């Protein structure tokens, strides 16, 4: 965040140099909108998990993204077993590579490569990484491989990072010993920064060697963990101070067919034994086909729980409920064969929370986390709909609640916020006294503005709402031209005033999707974009951040003519108090192209004489951030002086403000 400090004393109060000149003398002033804040009239406590994040392995979010592995197809399990690998033509005649399948003895990691080098000439395999490898000068890189010698003469491996011209920028040598599988490691420091590096493994014969799980990680990962995560991306998530982490999706939970649904048990334990499957986003959109998109599950459920803990978020896993994606196969498991799915849910609770003497608790401890992960909620199904969902959910809920009555269950309300599918589930699940209903809305900026008051009249006694996936799409959902424009972010900011005002009903909310590789995306817009070396938060990211970092503890009314402020005169507003800091926290959004004078009168509290003003705005609704201009639209913080109980200001066109002020007793 950029921080500016100003101290501007005006007659009553002062705000933003950026935006206001208060009713200059001689100019016919527009009549100010009069708002009242009732600082001592608590409407509801702010839900502690309110502003969270939604993680799905889409857009190369996991493999090729936050999961810091640099080698693509490290264990030859992609449909084309050598995808991502090539043999330099200068050495192609010097050896052969054969992919061998040992399915019967290693079902989770069946394939390995046998490299035969008939004489002393070098043979080599080169891995292209995920759209290249991002390498940083001076950083250390850890290489590892499972290998065994198949010949009496051992084959020597020279591992080198190559820059874009093919020049080595770091290397190490390994000579595997013996004819049983062992893991070998080596590390080196890179001498140059490149965004499209490659990894070459050269084989010096004569001899035959078997190789598998060829891996290269930067030593510097988030918390310097081996098998770790990209530190810059996790930092962006941590900076949001998210209330929860929803994982692993999204449609990826469902699978195109049940056979490729997300199965958490296959994602824990030894990384070498996690079964690779094709990512469902590989083939989903013809216009963004991504044939090299697979799931290694190096980022698996243990790592998700650990990530949630690291960034202070409550874990929120979503599990398959015996239904594949209804946009794809729509396949459902026979009801009398639902037991293994339910067992997965029960075992997941044991994995997260169980004592270390239980089977699943012991695995968690073995993976390095004896303490429980404090799982309190779980989603049953992603975007399911229809009576078949209700039938399966009911069986799930009964089994889970019987064993773990305190676990809160999140239910699908289908893919959209209205229509037949929504209405059927909304009516049915309310009658079934569901805990939390998951509403999804990808829609136009205008929809978001109109729906800022969506929850003002929602049923207060029924299930809570989880706004589990949302984003404004200015070009229509599924359109590859969608961008993270300021128009979309501003509409979300306006809409979120309605979520905040109604946090007694809407207890959690998350923008979706979270991450996207600039060269490997399938879905746009997304909250955070990255390439192999850099990353940036979109304007939408900063909207999320301003809400999450100004969450407060209780909602108090901000009113105009005794009514909530939700679009009258293009202004949207919500207000919370923060009991930890003793502050009043006001959020104001102006979605019009005009500057709007407002007069905010605070009742029930005496404001301190200083406060802070955070501004997020752009002169253009088409404004964007980018890898080259990551902070183009980003929060600017100023200090402000306050006098009395009325704040007068002009709120700038297309702007989002957060004002914080101490309340004196
Ligand atoms: O966020 C992208 C996709 O949108 C999710 O996978 C799915 O749940 C929704 O349709």
Would you mind describing this structure in some detail?
The protein has 665 residues and is of the alpha/beta class. It folds into three domains: 30-44 and 556-664, Immunoglobulin-like, CATH 2.60.40; 53-68 and 223-411 and 447-456 and 468-551, Alpha-Beta Barrel (TIM Barrel), CATH 3.20.20.80; 85-218, Jelly Rolls. 15% of the residues lie in helices and 32% in strands. The strands form seven sheets. It has an eight-stranded mixed beta sheet, with helices on one face. Strands 4-16-19-20-21-22-23-24 form an eight-stranded parallel beta sheet. Strands 5, 8, 9, 11, 12 and 14 form a six-stranded antiparallel beta sheet that branches. Helix 7 (445-450) links the parallel strand 22 (436-443) and strand 23. Alpha-L-arabinofuranose (AHR) is lined by residues 56, 58, 249-251, 382-383, 415, 469, 512-513, 523.
In short:
The protein is 15% helix and 32% strand. It is of the alpha/beta class and 665 residues long. The N terminus is likely disordered.
Please give the CATH class of the largest domain: Alpha Beta
Number of domains: 3
What ligand species are in this complex? Answer: alpha-L-arabinofuranose
Outline? globular
Q: Summarize the amount of helix as a percent range.
A: 10-25%
Mean pLDDT: 94
Give the N-to-C terminal Cα separation: 31 Å
| CATH architect. name of the largest domain | Alpha-Beta Barrel
The side-by-side strand order for the widest beta sheet comes to 1-35-34-37-32-31-28-3
Low-confidence stretches: 1-28
Class derived from helix and strand content:
alpha/beta
Write down how many β-strands occur, each being a DSSP E stretch of 2 or more residues: 37
CATH topology heading of the largest domain: TIM Barrel
